[in-house]
Amino acid sequence: MVLSATLILFPAKLFMSRKKNKKNIDESFGELQDNSSVGRRHITFQPPAQFDFQCPEKWEKWFKRFERYRMASGLDQEPEEKQVTSLIYCMGENAEDILTRSQLPEEKLNSYKTVKAAFDEAFIGKRNILYERAKFNSRNQKKGEIFEQFLTDISLMAERCAFRDLRDELVRDRIVVGILDKTLSSQLQEDADLTLEKAIQKAKQRESIKKQTYELEEIQSKPSSEVDRIHSSSSSKFPLKESTTDIMEGGCWNCGGPRHPRNSCPAKDYTCKCGKVGHFKKMCKSNTIVGKFTKKIGELRESSQISVSEQEDDATYLGALNTIGGVSNAWYVDIFINNQKVKAKLDSRAEVTAIPSNILKQIPNLFKSDKTLKNADQNIMVVDGMFTADLEFNGQKVKEKIYVIPTLSEPLLGITAIKSLNLITVRKSYESGNIQSIALDKVVQEYPQLFMGLGNIPGEYKIELIDDAKPYSFVPNLAGKTEAFRERKIESFVGPKIIRKFFQK
């Protein structure tokens, strides 16, 4: 019976023990949960990276970063001794040596402000105000530098110049003088009530407008993804310009952007291909393209007959065009193109030979043009095609590619064909860039006055020395024949009055 009672009591004791352990585990788990929830609410701030002692000029910037960490982490509420220890630890091991060299009294080593002042003295020392101001006054906006970076840099430089109450005015002046946009600089100088805030606002606004203008022009130069409206007549060779109705409704009629005052439109100074100023090409309602009509060597033609495409950059130049009015000084020759006599114009500026589509009675099968041709106005010309033909002049034959251009007014003989047919002779000396030398004797005979006398300039000329000029003379150590030769040479200059003796009183 005793054994039986013992066996019954043992499981009960074991059960009570397990229950007690479970309670302890639950309590511990609950405490862990509370701690984890608190941990989730706690924000940990990382201290700044160690200070680079090889760059003492970065001390002020690094210390500002440490100050932010000190405030954010609550370190500023701790005893000063802990703040000093944290500062030295974050700086790195070299901080200990610098602090030792400062020879601060024992009682000052736990003062945060005193320790910080010791590091200031070590890294900054006594600042040269004249040097800092000279750097500030010579700082200009660099090419490609955004205005915000320029403003930040001169603002930091101003802090080291001890301008005190004049700080804002001098930063304003540096902006006016130092910005790249000289037009804006002139406008700012005309504002008698200009403040630093107004100067910054106008500079940022001008930079923003330039960026927007560039982006708008980039958009214009790309093909539109919208479907163009189709003209009712199918005989037109050129597609209509994209309709601007959708763009203009509720927006600016000149640039296509949101409505704004006329004087602030980014297109106000833009010259369109139609020749008018004040609107972008995409907003142009005119179908006429006005050329520059610059008179060049060769042929010139109205650019209104030219295709307006601008997508080809590696185009071949066809020469200029017929000048409108006046007497033509052009050269013409009769040549044979595939045994058909043609009166062609010599165009040394044209890189290819071209003819109108109606100049030959029989034109062979045309191939697709292998070049993009541009006229003098840099407009791309419409080319029906090309073929290879035999050109003949004075019994001399050459093969040449001929380009058929329907809008061309007369046949053009390009520079390659001109040289091949010996229509223009170029002297080798000029072609290679070497001009033949002329005998010196001939020059002397033709211009004898250039080689006679001393060539003295009439009149007397006064030479003034600067006040702080220091005299300098070099007396070589000459002896014997060399010294005698020098004396004779000097005397030879005194006789013709090239020089005269000077006797100092």
From TrEMBL:
Domain of life: Eukaryota
Recorded GO MF terms: nucleic acid binding; zinc ion binding
Domain named CCHC-type: residues: 251-267, 271-286
Residue ranges of the region described as Disordered: 216-238
Protein name: CCHC-type domain-containing protein
Organism: Photinus pyralis
